[in-house]
Amino acid sequence: MTEPDPAAPATAGLFDSPLAQAVSAAGIGLWELDLASGREWWSDTTLALYGLPPGSPAPRREAWREHFVHPDDLARQMATAAESERTGRPYECEFRIRRADTGAVRRLISRSAVTLAASHRVLGITLDVTDRHEAERRAVTAEAQLGHAARQVGFGFGTREPDDEGGEWSPELKRLWGLPADAPTPRRGEIFEHIVPADRERVRQRLYTPIEPGALAEYSFEVRRADDGRCRTLTTRAYTEYDAAGRRGRTYFAVIDTTELLQRERELADLQELQRLAAEAAGLGLWELDLRSGQHRWDERTRALFDLTPGDPPFERHEFLSRLHPDDRARMVEAVAAADARGEPIDIEYRVSRRDGGWRWLRARGRVLAGADGRPWRSVGVCFETTALRQAEAERHARELAENANAAKTEFLSRMSHELRTPLNAVLGFAQLMALDSADPLSSAQRERLQHVQAAGWHLLALVNDVLDLARIESRNAPMQPEAVALGAAVTECIAMTAPRSAEAGVAVHWDSPEAAPHAVWADPVRLRQLLLNLVSNGVKYNRRGGWVRVGARRRGAQAVVSVRDNGLGIARARLPHLFQPFDRAGRENSGIEGTGLGLALVKLLVEQMGGAVEVDSTEGEGSEFRLVLPLPPADGVPRPLE
Ligand code: ADP
């Protein structure tokens, strides 16, 4: 989005138009006043009348009054301006000024010509009348009053007598209607044929409705010019004189061709609307800070970002600062000061307190605009909320930290496990040698103790192996190589491997394979055996003599479910949520049943890395069911990517 350039007059085009050039040639200056801000723009001719170089900014009203207007004329000028503002009548004032270059006193006339309602701007003219003949200046007819200037600018003037019959149009007014300058002044009833049909009735009503004392009639309409047939928009302003007794007198009216002006005004209004919509869509609030008075001007969106409701008064500077996060205040003052001193753009992110107690991140961007004297006088810009962005950034940072910490932990674990295994293997190896050494046999007490050393050693080795495995899988250093694995073969292999243990424990293990069971699953064959072995040996371990473990399989949609059921000890409901966490033994730490608490953590990691999931149902004292949910092999033989 391009920012509107507040330094450009709405009528920039007009200042450069052929009309303006003609006007300039006649020594008539144009000016434009923004009623809302009091800001003014002067054409080069206006600047020249004041002895100022072309292209310089127009002085502010107050500076203008102080430095240019003759002190004796000041009160009258101010009264005239105030009167025109109050009544809405055109402003016209004659006053003396002192030129900036030569210091000479000159007499100027300044007059407002057209009000651009949509942009709250007034366009006017200024001309130097120092050398004009006193008598001419004081002449009483409308034509003479407005004189030479009006003709040059293309303003038409006219009068209408109360009886409707008399009246006088200036030559320029006739030209505006496309009539020859020396044509007779048309009667009121004769002008309608030149007005486009759509506007006729409206103009008729305005024309035949008397203008109240003190009121100003202003309206626009379209005419088809008598000479070239072109359609032009004319804007007329009229007021009627009344005598002391209240009798209606002459009506004076001024007319200007506003075709291009209105077009520009419409475009400007469209543009403003477009910018408003764009700002709204982008959540952009507008702000303005008067650097001299410290006053803020905010639009509704900026106010909403500060939790101000429409009724709340705007913030003073110190209130604004008090709403900022303490850590951001100094930065804000610095940013504005830097922009102020060196004209640097403002771009700052800061926190403001929210009504609900939290902080809201805002980003403000803007720039400093210089006043007529070249010194910075206000900064303007936009602001928008960045809380969500900031949060996302903070989360990403936290995630990165956690990932780094996790990677470091994995790295540490795998190194440690490796370092532990070497001496442990030595311990187990020598223990075995001692047990088997027939040349130097152990006593039966020593043999028993050695068995404890060996059991503890094997337990430690299993633990270290599991930790290493877990770390490798977690860091994805052990990639899965899935393929179609025949389920029946894998299960029976596992059952065979656990047979010595299950026989010892007195637990029967079965493979139930109903007809509809899937023949194969999509899995890494080695890891699948590890999964099944873990679940089956748990079913045996956490069981009673005479108990059973049943392995089964079925389809669930496009997946296979392999279940390992037992009628063993079961798991307390409260333990289930943590069951798959490493080292969690679900309360069986002191049960005498050997284990590390890593088996189920491995199961979960492995099955998930194969694109599957693990589920559990268990009732304490009755038994458990663990289910592996795994993808089925792709029917067409094309491997599916892992999720
Ligand atoms: P480990 O068996 O080495 O302790 P696991 O991770 O395999 O570790 O299991 C964690 C805990 O879950 C076990 O200590 C046990 O309390 C419980 N558990 C696992 N499988 C079963 C089961 N089939 N029946 C009852 N409890 C079980």
Number of helices: 18
Q: What is the 3D shape?
A: elongated
Strand content: 15-25%
- Pick out the low-confidence regions: 1-7, 133-146, 636-643
The name of the CATH superfamily of the largest domain reads Histidine kinase-like ATPase, C-terminal domain
Taking the alpha carbons of the first and last residues, their distance comes to 42 Å
Strand order of the largest sheet: 2-1-5-4-3
Helix content: 40-55%
CATH class of the largest domain: Alpha Beta
Cα Rg? 47 Å
CATH topology of the largest domain: Heat Shock Protein 90
Query: Which cofactor or ligand species appear?
Result: adenosine-5'-diphosphate
Structural class: alpha+beta
Rounded mean pLDDT score: 83
From the coordinates shown, what is the CATH architecture of the largest domain?
Answer: 2-Layer Sandwich
What is the domain tally? 5
Q: Please state the oligomeric state of the protein chains shown.
A: single chain
What does this structure look like?
The structure is a single chain. The two termini are 42 Å apart. The protein folds into five domains: 12-128, Beta-Lactamase (2-Layer Sandwich); 136-263, Beta-Lactamase; 284-381, PAS domain (Beta-Lactamase, 2-Layer Sandwich); 391-474, Orthogonal Bundle (Helix Hairpins); 483-631, Heat Shock Protein 90. Helix 14 (387-436) packs antiparallel against helix 15 (444-474) and helix 17 (525-541) packs antiparallel against helix 18. The strands form five sheets. It has a five-stranded antiparallel β-sheet, sandwiched between helices. A five-stranded antiparallel β-sheet has the order 7-6-10-9-8, sandwiched between helices. A five-stranded antiparallel β-sheet has the order 12-11-15-14-13, sandwiched between helices. With 643 residues, the chain is α+β, with helices and mostly antiparallel strands. It contains 18 helices and 22 strands. The site of adenosine-5'-diphosphate has 21 residues, from helix 17 and helix 18.
